[in-house]
Give the backbone structure.
Amino acid sequence: MALALAAGGCAQLERQGEMLNAGAANLGRLPAAVPRVVGVETQSSVEHKELVAQFGGEYRFPAAERYIDDILVKLAQASDTPNQAAYKVTILNTPVVNAFALPSGNLYVTRGLLALAGDASEAAAVMAHEIAHVTARHSSLRAEREREAEVISKAAAVIQSKQKSDDVRASQRLSFASFSRQQELEADAIGVRVIAKAGFDPYGASRFLAALGKSADLRAALYGKKQSAGFDILATHPSTPDRIAKAVAAARQIGAPGVGVRDRAGYLAAISGLAYGDDPNEGFVRGPKFTHPRLRFTFTAPDGFLLENSSEAVFGVKEHDDEALRLDSVRAPAGKTLEAYVESGWVDGLLRSSVRRVEINGLPAVIANARAGEWNFKLAVIQLGDELYRLIFAVRALNDDAERRFMASAQSFRRLGWEETLDVRGLRIAIVTASAQDTSDTLAARMVAPNRPLEYFLLLNGLDPQDRLVPGERYKLVAE
């Protein structure tokens, strides 16, 4: 089903590349008399720009930036290479939980990671782990190994049989996976030691890894993705339980729980107001409704769907994986009718007799049916300006109820008025103080979360279901 829904390719809702190309073309038409500045970008600056662009751009939030910069100074002084050129951390504008390091010393943390971390020691553990990758030259060593593997693979392809060449490549993949796991565990151990030396709680690493595992489990439960119980030999990271156990063991060598600074209050104050979830300017989900203020459209999925926004498309799944949907866009081909486009072969199994012209909220559209194996598909292609928005609804049993729900969803697609695009409020992290009457349920009821607010409240605050709130303690909520 997923492959069928992806049949339209990776069409994006935005075409930034085209705008960049147009800008470059305009620069080429500058008068000859205009002085031109010619510079050579370093490899690190190119890598920095590419990574920032890939993860939604840089997110500016002065309070959090100042706080993590202060942490970074302490970590750099406590690292194995205190004379290393100054480290710099960049916050990436994405809800994805991740962190990276470049050999240059550039560190990157996502705002999703900052929202998940519970205190200063957890944030410090992430950055110390990334510093360890730099000081241990992991990135450089990986690049060297990749170059060696490429040479070996090419040589094997020339002087040996194809089977032997494939065997060599498979062996190299296994070697890389092992190398990467070793690097991650080494960086974990170094990171625990460094945060302790910098004065932070060394158990922050294991707490954050536990939160990371719970985050992955919750996401898997929401979107019907099965978690592997075993260890995948080709995985680039160790299993989370293995990393937690080793991080706890490393912390115990330093001291018993309770040593070092956590500064939960200071950390929560620094991230108060931090953007949470999708950047509203790139489209956002509220329950079954998706809105894109910049592209000026909105639509609502059928009841029971969980929506997820990405740079490629909006995806939706229903519980039990028996229904799914995808919404993406392509540029309208010049000189071609909507009917001709639908019949042009972009989707397999099209039933041509089902192609029908309709109008949806004043917009020209075509609906049709398709079939592939046990799956039935309802299609709607809606034209808004120069864009064609393609809504694909997949269902095992195509009955009257499924037809009705698809049509209701398709007919919910509409152009936003200008005033609606101005009244856009993204989600943010709000910090509240618990009263004596508050419980996890009462605070979770105040969460603006599209799905499972109680689970997300527990996740964001590092709590288990049986934990009781502490009156006067501060907790994270998701609010508008």
Notes: The chain is about 40% helix and 20% strand. The chain has three domains: 2-11+281-422, 57-276, 427-479. The radius of gyration is 26 Å.
